[in-house]
Amino acid sequence: MENTAKSVLYIELDNCIGCRSCLAACTQCGGHEERNRNYVYDVNPLVNRQTMPIMCLHCVNPACARSCPVQAIQVHETGAVLSAMVEKCLGCQNCTIACPYGIPKFDEEQKLMYKCDLCIDRTKDDIPPMCASVCPTNTLQWISKEELAAKKKKHTLDNENWVASAPYLENETNVRINLPGILQGTAKLF
Amino acid sequence: MLKDNVFPVKDIPNVVHPNETLVATHCCYCGMQCGMNLRVNTKSNRIVGVEPRYDWPVTLGKMCPKGVTAYQTVNHPERLTTPLIRDDASKKGTPDGFREATWEEALDRIVSRFKELQANYGKDSLSVFSGVSMTNEKCYLTGKFARVGLQTRYIDYNGRFCMSSAAAGFMRSFGVDRGSTVPWTDIPETDCLFVAGSNAAECHPTSMFRIWAVQERGGYLIVADPRETPIARRADVHLDLRPGTDLALANGILHQLIERGFADESFVAAHTNGFEETKAIVSAFTPEYTSEITGVAPDKIVRAAELYGKAPNAIVMFARGIEQQHKGADNVSAYTNLALVTGKIGRPKSGVATFTGQGNGQGGREHGQKADQLPGYRKLTEPKHVQAICDVWGIAPEEMPKPGVSAYEMFGLMTDKTIRGLYLVCSNPAVSAPNQNFVRAALRELDFMVCSDFFLSESAEYADVVLPATSWSEDEGTVTNLEGRIIKINKAQEPVGESKPDWAIQIAIAERMGRGRYFSHLTDPKAIYDELRLASKGGYADYYGATWEKIERQQGVFWPCKSEEDEGTPRMFLDRKFFHADGKANICALPYRPAAEEPDAEYPLRLTTGRVVYHYLSGNQTRRVPFLRDMCPEPFVEVHPALAAQYGIAHEDRVRLYTRRGEAVFAVKITEAIRQDTVFVPYHFGKEQSINLLTNDALDPMSRMPEFKACAAQMVKIG
User: Fold this and answer.
1) HSE on the CB side for B39, CA within 13 Å?
2) Do the Cβ atoms of A134 and B12 come within 8 Å?
3) pLDDT attached to residue A148
4) d(CA B553, CA B520)
């Protein structure tokens, strides 16, 4: 089913500088109770400063929701995979294990899962999620479907596998990722 | 109004949470001055969070982790809320021994001790040491407070540790010091960016979306830095030079530009002086000779010159890496030479820019906080300039104090008892000054010290009286960002506890010193700003036409802005007129000199210092913010794996670093992103974790900037 979102979260991995503004910003979203729900990895900290954000990809057919025994994880009409409903969540952590990206976090005190809900209070009105709002490097972008199409056209590599999350990992995702090497196809100005 | 072709402002509505209002303002930290909305609870009238400010054209809602969490300092439990007095001087240098006092008692104590010192030792026995993380209004008033309120010649500011080399270099090259000749919106449209000595990704992260855009358009990025910083990681050419050799590298690149025919001869002939002398000096800097000094491979030097030379438009950008050296002003002029020789200046998308470190590093260096300078960049040594300011201040020229000494030199005068009293505002030299053992001893030597701040900083621990000042969001005023754009800071909540704005504190002291008649009309920041506008009128940095109303209406005004009708000057020198008397710029002939201290058998390594993305300056604010503290709780020393193998040390081992000035212990961070002959330590930490215990106090003869970026060091494994 086609989601109703006007825009998508788009990740340009090469741009990341590891500043972790996205983590700090996540705490500022209404309803996030000042807990961040994303990660930034140092890819190889002993070698260089390459970092990458690990964000929920909001899978079209999410393993976290499929594995939930009580249907606590709902998929919003925009395609956002929501945080577990507090009144339903058993704290079984099936979702944490099922997710191939390790996204759902677990609150040990409350025995509840919590995960990125794509700042649903913002994105349902086409306002960028907090992480993409503040991202100073345009690693995380909130772009229209037309902008996405233009990027796809520009960045398609020879093998056309430009979206890292499809089809090999968890099938189709609502969040799109550009493979590292975004500049490979860029023609230099001079 | 400026048009941004690459990143136009999108019309995104603000999110307003229930029971809250938004106050549009700017971040309190670096020179980017990112736009932000502070969330204010309408019941408690307190700041509770932050929302992006999508309509701010410079940053479009983007913030770094410091910006996102900046509001957390305002209602922080460690805020100073009442004046503190220390009766027992033996506990100086520690946080102990203070008692709470009333404002009356604190001000009485300050004024009686100030008067006593001046009666016994002369007017100049007092000093003022200030900063530029504060509004233009406060910066201006601080200069007037020192010279008219306290009547002392000794005032200087922490911009000497930050921006003074850029200021001196620009003054020599252009005749005016505005940190950027182009607005930041020009950056993504240029064809080649040459970034020298700037870890922009960590120090000015919200510049990065524009910098990456240059490459995404097919443009080139050249980075000169001893470390493979996040920006260097993706550069088309990374010039990985030895710390302290920047002048040789710039000369080497200029040599290549001239050799390979990239000089713009008609521009040079019509608009510059000094080309022939410079050409003669740089002729020795062949790629091989430059490589010998800098350690950068010759082909990289050639390639960098080729890319910069061929680019239809190019911007040279730099920061503390080249400026915090004992030849920082020369480095700035040497890099400015590249733009002048190739004529890539005085037009859109081409020019020179420095990344301003402190929030108001630009405005704060224009309004008379420097030892030798009066508002509007006027000089204390010029009788006409002195007269102009005397007319505004209502004093006679004979009453104007003579030029004093620079920031670091003031500590020398404290040591020899020339200076006996200090009023310290908005600065933390007990962390940020070089050669800390000397600086801390100098602070201990003072007969009387006052510190105005909103946290009890390491420097405040040396004070006899500590005054609780307001934070940036409890007052209003203007700052001038790294583009030269004057912007408005707005008040979001009432001051915490009994804290007061610095301008109000200084006026209260001036009144009690018997100098009230010069200050009593300055009843609010706007009145101070309007006097600043008058004082700057006709000066180099002319703010006269930049009223608060115009700043709000135009989303900032670039100086110079000389009249009500003038919209301001986003791009400098479009008429190809520079600010020297003959209208020409100076291409500067700059012989190379090495770092003040070169490695030797006893101290075989090069030590360099810098920032991490999570902390700001001395860390007095950011080390108290939980998110930022957790991300980087302590300093570290970056060591290359090959060097680590040589010393037998592993990741997270502890080592003791030594220089001729001091020693300190750091955890080891192994990384290939540092040169094998160099170690790096961030400087945001105090007490025994301060790398400034080790740094060199050799001063630039022109800017009086210490050499933070290069000294000789020894490393010893512990245990």
Assistant:
1) 18
2) no
3) 86
4) 30
The pLDDT score that the predictor gives to residue B120 is 98
Residue given tokens 């099936």 in the structure block:
A94
CA–CA distance, B535 with B610 (Å, rounded to integer): 36
> Of chain B residues 284-313, which have a CB less than 8 A from chain A?
310-312
Listed by start position, the domains of chain A span 7-184
- CA angle A11-A12-A16, nearest 5°? 105
Tell me whether B671 touches chain A (CB under 8 Å). yes
Q: Could you please state the CATH topology (level 3) that the domain comprising B605-717 is classified under.
A: Barwin-like endoglucanases (2.40.40)
Q: B231 contacts in A (CB within 8 Å)?
A: 17
Instruction: Locate the chain B residue with the closest alpha carbon to A33.
Output: B49
CATH number of the structural domain B84-160+366-469+496-547 = 3.40.50.740
Put simply, the answer to whether B63 touches A134 (Cβ < 8 Å) is yes
A13/chain B closest Cα distance in angstroms: 12
Contact A46 B15 (CB under 8 A): no
Per CATH, the number for B180-355 is 3.40.228.10
pLDDT exceeds 90 at position A152? no
CATH for the stretch A7-184: 3.30.70.20
Instruction: State residue B342's pLDDT score.
Output: 98
Distant-in-sequence, close-in-space partners of A30: CB < 8 Å, separation ≥ 6: A121, A122, B15, B17
Rounded Cα distance between B153 and B381, Å, is 13
What's the CA gap between B10 and B26, in Å, rounded? 19
CA dihedral B132, B137, B138, B143 (to 10 degrees): 90
Per-residue pLDDT at A160 exceeds 70: no
Q: Is a pLDDT exceeding 80 seen at residue A185?
A: no
All residues at 6 or more sequence positions from B26 whose CB lies less than 8 Å from its CB, including other chains: B33, B34, B35, B36, B56, B479, B481, B487, B489
Inform me whether the C-beta atom of residue B673 falls under 8 Å from chain A C-beta atoms.
Answer: yes
Cα–Cα distance measured from residue B266 to residue B272, given in angstroms and rounded to the nearest whole number: 10
Closest CA to B423 of B160, B113, B703, B697: B113
CB nearest A49 (choices: B50, B65, B228): B228
Which chain A residues contact residue B61 at CB under 8 A? 128, 133-134
Q: Which residues in chain B show pLDDT less than 70?
A: 1
Query: Any CB–CB contact under 8 A between B217 and chain A?
Result: yes
Give the pLDDT confidence of A14-45 residue by residue, as tens digits. Answer: 999 999 999 999 999 888 888 999 999 999 98
Considering only alpha carbons, which residue of chain A is nearest residue B70? A24
Q: Which residue of B has its CA nearest to A24?
A: B65
